[in-house]
Amino acid sequence: MSVNLRKVAMIGCGFVGSASCFALMQSGIFSEMVLIDAVPEKAEGEALDIAHGLLYAKPMNIYAGTYDDITDAAIIIISAGAAQKPGETRLDLVKKNVGIFKSIIPKIAKRNCEGILLIVANPVDILTYAALKLSGFPENRVIGTGTVLDTARLQYLLGQHLGVDARDVDAYIVGEHGDSEIAVWSSARVSNMPLHDFCELRGYQDHTEEMTRIAEQVKNSAYEIIEKKKATYYGIAMSVKRVCEAIIRDEKSVLPVSNLMCGQYGLEELCLSMPAVVGAHGVECPLPVNMDERELDALKQSADTLKNVIADADI
Predict the structure, then answer these.
(1) How confident is the model at residue 1 (pLDDT cuts 50, 70, 90)?
(2) Domain extent at residue 292
(3) Is 209 exposed, middle or buried (0-12, 13-18, 19+ CB in 10 A)?
(4) Residues 169 and 153 in one domain
(5) Spatial separation of the C-alpha atoms in residues 42 and 144, rounded to whole Å
(6) Which residues contact 236 (CB under 8 A, 6 or more apart)?
(7) Do 33 and 84 belong to one domain?
(8) Which residues pair with 9 in a beta bridge?
(9) Which residues of 181-199 are buried (b: 16+ CB within 10 A; e: fewer)?
(10) 177: closest CA among 233, 237, 218?
(11) pLDDT tens digits, residue range 291-308?
(12) Residue 295: phi, psi to the nearest 5?
């Protein structure tokens, strides 16, 4: 069956899934959206609630459905999984959510879908790898949201710190979407000016202390939000929307999505977040990032952390 470029499917209608559907409804990039959940009434309620705001958005067919409704979807988003609890790391979720994926992914695979799988559930790098292995999809068509949100947080905080529009900040979080993530300071820039030079221009001298503080704030953002309001969903919903835009509009945007490593930096047989060109075919081209020796070591440690988890997860 051919792909309907105006159709998206959401599997999992919890906080993240429903917030993402709401963001996608407002974006206007799709004209059809099907919601699927293990509790059908949950999907039905979310579909009704979002659809009732369509008068103030673009026309769209929003409905609850089944796996038979996903076959022609251009993007199949998977946010289903156990939620991260206060005090729990993303990697603590592994066994629960890999088990859920072992139920979900075969249902997708047997329908011969030609769309792109976009993984949102945590731990996203592990689950992106699980989805790739369980689905048999080509590697370019299985993407995780990865560190798209972490990178947005980094750029937002740098913009606040430096008193500059965050959209003019070019800096990435790479590696695991989690505790071993790496802020790539060595190649960070503001409007094509090296970050350290821009800091001095703005009167900031103590780079190391501020860089450490900001990187820790980015890494701990989810924990802080979960502690305060029990879940995070708005930021990731906007990140889902951004990745979908890049795919549907074939933007060839550079985004730090989770994708399969095939020898880059000596890494393979795992998914982690590195900048890549994202367009109509999914991940079209991984892009190298200039990193210093310390950052490269941290990336390899992050990869080792993920590979150890993969080995224990029975994927």
Answers:
(1) low
(2) 148-313
(3) exposed
(4) yes
(5) 24
(6) 16, 19, 20, 120, 145, 149
(7) yes
(8) 34, 76
(9) bbbbbbebebeeeebbebb
(10) 218
(11) 999 999 999 999 998 998
(12) -70, -40
SS3 state of residue 2: coil
Distance CA 61, CA 74 (A): 15
What does the alpha-carbon distance between residue 273 and residue 197 come to, in Å, rounded to a whole number?
27
Going by C-beta distance under 8 Å and a sequence separation of 6 or more, which residues neighbour residue 171?
Answer: 151, 154, 155, 158, 183, 184, 185, 187, 188, 189, 195
Same domain, 133 and 177: no
pTM: 0.94
Please check whether residues 65 and 190 belong to one and the same domain.
no
Tell me: the pLDDT tens digits for 260-297?
Answer: 999 999 999 999 999 999 999 999 999 989 999 999 99
Q: Are residues 94 and 123 in the same domain?
A: yes
Mean pLDDT of 236-256: 98
CATH number of the CATH domain containing 212: 3.90.110.10
35 bridge partner residues: 10, 64
For 127, the 3-state DSSP assignment is helix
Of 144, 160, 187, the position where a domain reaches its end is 144
Six-digit token string for 255: 């985004």
If one counts the domains in the chain, the total is 2
Catalytically annotated residues? 177
Q: Is 139 in contact with 283 (CB distance < 8 Å)?
A: yes
Q: Which of 144, 171, 198 is the last residue of a domain?
A: 144
Q: Is residue 95 domain-shared with residue 125, that is, in the same domain?
A: yes
Structure tokens belonging to residue 238: 């906007």
